[in-house]
Structures are given as structure tokens and as C-alpha cells.
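Hey, quick one: can you model this chain's 3D structure?
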Amino acid sequence: MAYELEEIRTGQEIFYYLLENHELREDNEPLLYKAYTEQEEVQNLVKSQGEIAGSNIERYGNVIYLIPKEENNFLGFSKAQLRDVLCKSNATDKDYYLSQFVILTLLVEFFDGQGSSSKTREYIKVGELQNCISKRLKEGADNVNEEEEETAGIAFSNILEAYEALRSDEKGSRARTTKEGFLHQILIFLQKQGLIEYVEQDEMIKTTKKLDNFMDWNLLNQNNYQRVLRVLGGNRHEQN
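Sure thing. Here's the predicted structure for all 240 residues.
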């Protein structure tokens, strides 16, 4: 397919904007948004550039997102980078997988994968989330044997060991060696990524529209959601 020079230029402009800002909102850039949504040639060019850059270009509502693929360590984060950002110094794989379990638990508490929108609550308190993490880890370690852990993809006993190695501090320490500080660091990271609103003074967590859209349109089909529940040992919305 032959493209006009202006189409190529517009496609490059949109892709560069996405590289710089990670998202393109209709309200902020109406001309670029219109070009992407109304010109198939421009949209194909942008998606092609995204594919070459190891990313997906997706539109949810009136926002176009650049979403790095899982193995994209240039536009996204590598395992080592996430471990450095989220965990204490000299962290092990157990600490890293604990951080991912925390994020997974947060998602499950907000989204149930049912109906036209998967979101079931507007906020969660930090203390409640911490209790959910502790409860799910202990239930998993008690109820899932080694063979089942391998099938589920989560070694509950190892992650629980990493969690219990963190100190508890009722004064709300921000040190990553405490449960409270470890959770705080993860919430700050998610907020910087535009996925949650973390109201520290009220110890309250809310999701952003970006995360709501991503969960509804990209992650939460029934197969994915049921797998998450099996991994966490939950069965809250079992269907007949």
C-alpha cells in the first residue's frame, strides 16, 4: 500500500507524541486524535510503528495509549528495574514476586470481571489492602501444595516468607524493610504510572480512568479473571 507523504508525517507525529506522553487525549490534541480515528491509513502507520517498537497502540474511549509489550524493557520495565524500584536493597526474587502479588491483589479488590464494567468499588483503605494481602498469602500457603503452586504459577510459601520477613510498624514507617513502607513504595510507583490515586493523608487508594479502561478492555476477559481467582485461591463470583 502506498502512503501519501502527509499521512506518513502525521503518523510519525502521533507516534512521537505517544512516545513522549504515553497517551493521546482527544481534549488535549484534537487534530492528532481525529487523524488517528478517522484516517485508516494514519492509524495503520501508527500501529505499525508501535509493533516495530515492541508495543501495542490501543484506543479506549477518547484516549489513545502506547502500551509496551511484556518483554519490552526499553519502553517498559525489566524485572531487575522493577525490583530496584519496588523492593528493598539486595532484594531477592521472593521480594520481587511479593511486589507483583501486592499489585495483583489490589487489582482483584477493585475489579471483578463481571458486567459492562468490571469495577466494583471506588476506593480501598491502605489498612484493608494490607489485611487482604496477609489473608490471601496465608490462605494460599495453607491450602495450596507444591504441585498446585507450580500449576497456579505462584509459590505462596516463598512469597509469604518474604512478606513475614518485613517488619511491622504501626507508626507508618516508609522504610522498605517494613510492611507499611513496602506497600507505600508500590503505591507511589503505581501513582507515578497514572494507574491509581494514592491519597496519603487519608490512607486511601482510588483507581484512575486509565486503569479502569485498561482492565475493562484489555485484561479482564473471563478466562483471565478466573485464572487470577484460582491463583489467589478465591472464588468470590463463581458462576453456574
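One thing worth noting: The two ends are 49 Å apart (CA to CA).
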